[in-house]
Amino acid sequence: MELKNDLILRAARGEKTERTPVWLMRQAGRILPEYRAVRNSLSGFIELVKNPDLAAEVTIQPVDILGVDAAIIFSDILVIPEAMGLPYEMIEKKGPWFPNTIKSEADLKNIRIADSSSDLGYVIDAIKVTKRELAGRVPLIGFAGAPWTIFCYMVEGHGSKTFSNARKMLYTQPALAEKLMQMITDSTITYLKAQIEAGANIVQVFDSWAGILPADQYEQFSMKYIRQICSAITEVPVTVFAKGAYFARKSMATLDCETIGLDWNMDIKESRELVGPNKTLQGNLDPCALYGSNTEVEAATKKMLDAFGPDRHIANLGHGVYPDIDPEKVKVFVNTVKEYSATLRNS
């Protein structure tokens, strides 16, 4: 199906665009009353993720309501460990919880490399429904968690400020850590390819906990596996977003991906110098900037666009939009990107 709006794909490939494309991480979620209405009709988050029709509905809501240039499939990075045999629960106001974790070599016998068709068929079905309902209006983004971030949850069992148990394994059982990381990587590659086959036009790898590792360990225990994923995905553009990995930007320039996502603490000019001219940059407005007045949001957005310039940029926040942010402020951000970036190209 031919896309009516392919801005994000052209920007990722480094082609000229009439304006800067814009979308937001976590755009399909708690900021929208329409999302909360769907969510409240169910038992919780996981039931919504596993209902293809409703997952498609909330995926499309931001396109209709916020006017973003791409939809991102409503799912969760933790579907991978569950598909590998390590189920999770989503505890309200606390986050994910894994009743069982990986502690020793023996625990690897209880998990497997995920089969995307049987273990993750509900995500694949949600993508197919979403593509049909979008009818080519905008591209659909597929995604997965980076192996290091998934590893953190599989070993720690829950969210953490330090993930000390996960990091401990890198020192005390590095061979076990690498074996588990490879299983996650193999699962992720087949999962992303299944998303692409179902209709995803571009995919993003989220390394949410990149910033808790020192640079040398990040190269060994994260970047090595992200590199495998990027090299394996040749069908569509790939974006890598590694929150807090400011030390790895030069290394990211060597990844076989099209786009590098920046968090809001990564200086734009410095990042461009480190990454070089041959990658598209994505980001990176501080999500908290959206708490400001309309005038302040507009000014912050224009400042960001000026810093990135007109080429090889996909506008986004430097992390996911926070749940208590007013959707009207998000619309100011989106509309400012559209109008101001178009003006810059015509000036």
What does this entry look like structurally?
This protein has one domain: Alpha-Beta Barrel (TIM Barrel), CATH 3.20.20. The protein is built from 15 helices and nine strands. The protein has helices spanning about 5-10, 35-40, 45-50, 50-65, 80-85, 115-120, 120-135, 145-155, 165-170, 175-200, 215-230, 250, 270-275, 295-310, 325-345, and strands spanning about 70, 90, 95, 140-145, 200-205, 240, 260, 280-285, 315. The strands form two sheets. It has a seven-stranded parallel sheet. A two-stranded antiparallel sheet has the order 2-3. The relative contact order is 0.14. The mean pLDDT is about 95. It comes from Roseivirga seohaensis. It is found in: Cytoplasm.
Task: Summarize the entry for a quick read.
This protein is of the alpha/beta class. The chain contains 15 helices and nine strands. The radius of gyration is 19 Å and the shape is globular.
What are its keywords?
TIM Barrel, 347 residues, alpha/beta
Gyration radius from CA atoms, angstroms: 19 Å
Q: What is the class in the CATH system?
A: Alpha Beta
**Which oligomerization state do the chains in this entry correspond to?**
single chain
Q: What fold name goes in the CATH topology slot? A: TIM Barrel
List the helices and strands and how they pair.
Elements: H1 7-12, H2 33-40, H3 45-49, H4 52-65, E1 71-72, H5 79-83, E2 89-91, E3 95-97, H6 116-119, H7 121-134, E4 140-145, H8 147-156, H9 164-172, H10 174-198, E5 202-207, H11 215-232, E6 238-242, H12 249-252, E7 259-261, H13 268-275, E8 280-285, H14 294-308, E9 313-317, H15 327-346
Helix pairs in contact: 4-7, 8-9, 8-10, 9-10, 10-11, 14-15
